Amino acid sequence: MSTATLAEVAETYRHPESLGNFLRDRNPITLLVALVSLAVVAAAVPGLITPFAVCAVFVLLAFAGGVGPAYTATYLKLWAVVGFILFLLRALLLDGEHVYFTFGNLQVTAEGVYEGLRFAAVVMAICGAVTLFFALVTMRRLMLALEMRGVSPRASYVLLASFQSMTDLGATAKVVLDAQKARGIETEGGLITRAKAFFPVLAPVFLSAMTATEERAIALDARAFNSPAAHSHLVQLPRTATWEWLAAGLFAAVATACVMGRFLGWL
Amino acid sequence: MPIELYRAAFAYPDGSPALSSVTLRVGDGERLAIVGQNGAGKTTTVKLMNGLLKPTHGEVRVDGVLTTDRTTAQIARIVGYVFQNPDDQLFASDVRTEIEYLPRHLGWPDEMRTERVERAIDITGIRPHLDANPKDLPMAIRKFVAIAAVLVGACRYIVLDEPTAGLDARGLDLLRSMLDHLRDDGTAVVTITHDMRFVIDTFDRVVAMADGTVIADGRCADVFADDEVLHRARIKRLIVAQIARDLELSRTALTVDDVVALVP
Amino acid sequence: MALASLRDVRFTYAYSDRPALDGITLEIESGMVHGIVGLNASGKTTLCSLIRGIVPHFHKGELEGSVEILGRDLLEWDPAELSRTIGCVFDNPFTQISGIRETVFEEIALGLENLGTPRAEMIERVERVVEQLGIEALVRKNPNGLSGGQRQKVAFASIIAMDADVIVIDEPTSQLDPDATDAVFGIIADLKAQGKSIVLVEHKIDLLAEYADRLTVLRAGRIVTTGAARDVLTSDELIAAEVPVPEVTELSRRLDAIGRPFVRTPITSAEAAAAVSARIQEASNAH
Fold this sequence. Notes:
The complex is a heterotrimer. By secondary structure, chain B is α/β, with parallel strands linked by helices. Chain B contains eleven helices and ten strands. By secondary structure, chain C is α/β, with parallel strands linked by helices. Chain C has twelve helices and ten strands. Chain C has helices spanning 44-52, 54-57, 79-85, 104-114, 119-133, 148-161, 178-193, 205-211, 229-233, 236-240, 247-257, 269-286, and strands at residues 4-13, 21-28, 33-38, 61-69, 72-73, 86-89, 166-170, 197-201, 214-219, 222-228. In chain C, the strands form two sheets. In chain C, strands 6-7-8-3-9-10 form a six-stranded mixed sheet, sandwiched between helices. In chain C, helix 4 (104-114) crosses helix 5. Chain C is globular. The termini of chain C are far apart. The chains are: A mainly alpha, B alpha/beta, C alpha/beta. Chains in contact: A-B, A-C, B-C.
């Protein structure tokens, strides 16, 4: 890469970081508020239509956010496994008056099916909000938004670093696995072979993780992490417009209204 | 029986090539150094030799058998590989257990195990540290423990990745005497290194790599006499050898001794 | 003012019963490249840690004697202020990447963010250090996926970017190929030219001979000899401490041994070339 492209890279940091998509460029916090509000509405409003509609809205939002196909695939898998099991448990175990059919001592009733569908849809709406949020927002953007609103860099470091350390552990495990194979320890094959290789692989992974933690702390200190000065930020998020905060507030207000309505018996 | 790479190429799953085409033969008991810039394909080449990587094109044979037909652990019993970082390899809570691990894992009879373990300990000079926990030992000693843990197997080839990195003068002496020992008992050694003084002092054959292929393979004296090769592989001759060349005393001087003889 | 002034210092790590440093009296002057050499475990890293305040602020232990850093007693320094004043590059490239930044550019900027450097200046400084080290090709990459050698360069760049007046560097080239090693030493020379003070632990004695102004030789936690690089490199104490001599100095020693010594023992390649060249001249004049 030539110096011209270094200048190009540098130039990108002079401007707010845009991901080139309306939805993904929104402030992670307002996005989070909106998505959580939708999930709350799905849970608060009785009936089947609302939770299912909210789930459908998530898929539409995913497409609007440019992550449609990948998100839909994950979401459908979640539905097929988690949603379906939740539905089955309710549908098979809940008693009711309108019996569709029986096998053994299990009864499938209209009430069971209805409750099963509702329960599955509500839980999937909550899962949908969380998964969609992380499909649209990187951890780093979220932490940056939180830091801008006063969360300490220390807290955000702990979170980001723990996510990274999971990836790192996986990478170390792969190297160690190779290193053990390279000295002739069989790690491929049947269960017993794999079990025998378990310790030689696990021990170095954790030992190095432990020594690394201390060294990392010192290295981070050398990067002035403990400096009392107010930290500045290289990456800037796009400015959050007033309408965006208002919209988030509106979402939250609707969700609150639904919850209150539920408790006060309006819904 | 030798290790043979024939037009071996390797590309990562994402398609980025690490090795374009390497043809290389390592004979029984031979020792050679592979040199070149980071990213030239040195590590990929040696990983192909012991089956940690399988070629995406071409062939790699160990003892006449394609590496694609065996597991890495099976090949590793013929071609042992010591990683640059000993911490990737060491796991036991004392040195002796670490070294005895492989023989026990393979279920060798006691007599054979004792013999191989003692040999590995002697060759690597780690006898004073047998009861220590490897993680309490200095890096240089840990390196020799990792080497011993590989040498204890019955491998006839051993690959060392950057063995001199972080070694002091004492460690270097130990490494040299270990290599002499291995030569005497017919174990072939393939090493990757950036340390040209180590190469010149210790190896007769040197393989220079650049851009995923071998650009020179021959006696040290010949490879280091070729400016074009040195430039492409981004390596240098010894400072004194370069001085002798610049002052037109010799084009083939290699060692400090060579130059001593040339200074009028 | 001296960068560091140690009087009769002895330090024993809390977990150890033998001192890591013992009887150390040493003056490290500012504005120079000060090399530290010795066998493994001879106390080089501990000495660096002491100058940087990691010992005894982070690694606990018993410290005797007096240590003054830039004219102030080590124990009176605020650890955060000291870590800002003295930059430090460590030997393990794998633990110096923060793990919380997504590109090398952002990784190098991290220290500047922590110092509260304004964005425009931050970008400029990162650009400059990237060019200096020739790592333009890395700036877009994820630092967590780099090789050891690449990480070592990024770790070095990250500290250089912070622009401290004093930089302590522990084996900066252990994972680097000769080209990259030369680049790192080129930067060390640049830093010195800018008036910075550098304390450098390095096994590559030929490079120390080219770049270091002063050298300290350690053995088993004690100073064997310290002084101007030339004096140390040509002294017999160096050999007693099992530290290799530079190639060109070895050439000179061998010639000495066979009764054909150079007039002055060379320590750099330029000096050696001049000495050999003079001999060739002499020889041809004699004919």
